[in-house]
């Protein structure tokens, strides 16, 4: 591998249970790459798939010497699978994309053209969200709004992992060791000069999405807590406000007792106060616990992923 010259372009494709999509993907991707008149490699990361994804990738590799397959020991998640692909990429320009053909391979030519103009990063911005309902689109808009207002890092709107990055950008990302891999935030955090193209997102070629509403919500919360400590700081302000109201209530009760004597209050107010404050404390502890858990993961220093086997062209 090391004796071969580095290609101009690396295409990285994380795969999890994408067996149906593999022949469709390469039937469309390889002709596009062959027409670009640049040397290239395709790196597919099998993220612990439970179907025949690995077998189909190795079948394609028998006829395509520029395909490299990384087989992870289990499912580590798309963000870490993408990190594995970036770490093993050798191209001067690197393009991550999905295996379901929602990212059209034809857009790579436009990104390469911008890269040759001298841009370090070329965003691929979707013109519309395809295959998503109203609730999912509203959730996405809400997430971007919250992230922009609570984080110092601004995410480009309607831009996913599909983009082109220069070699120096990829090297910078690879030097970031954090275990919480919110790649859209990491890509935005490193900066560099960027341009963008607009593409039309396609329908998923086959299979179903691996993200449900709960996973998307957790993913969004991970992204926010990875790039903002506002959820920690906001509870200080909420605590101060509640303490001020409680102090004001104490003053009112003292004045009431001095002028009107002692009455017998109902238990409802006590019950409401205890439940409200207890719930606030548990919520606060949950958010603090999430940050502490991240610190715990970082301190352990476990690897981001484990490679079961690296299938190089011409190998076993």
TrEMBL record:
Keyword line: Cell membrane, Glycosyltransferase, Membrane, Transferase, Transmembrane, Transmembrane helix
Segments traversing the membrane: 234-255, 267-288
Occurrences of domain Glycosyltransferase 2-like (ranges): 10-171
Domain of life (superkingdom): Bacteria
Gene3D superfamilies in the record: Spore Coat Polysaccharide Biosynthesis Protein SpsA, Chain A
A single MF term (Gene Ontology): glycosyltransferase activity
CDD domains, per database record: DPM1_like_bac
Localization in the cell: Cell membrane
Coiled coil: none
Topological category with respect to the lipid bilayer: Multi-pass membrane protein
Main location group: membrane
Pfam families hit by this protein: Glycos_transf_2 (PF00535)
GO cellular component, one term: plasma membrane
Similarity section: Belongs to the glycosyltransferase 2 family. GtrB subfamily.
Protein name: Glycosyltransferase
Gene source species: Paramagnetospirillum kuznetsovii
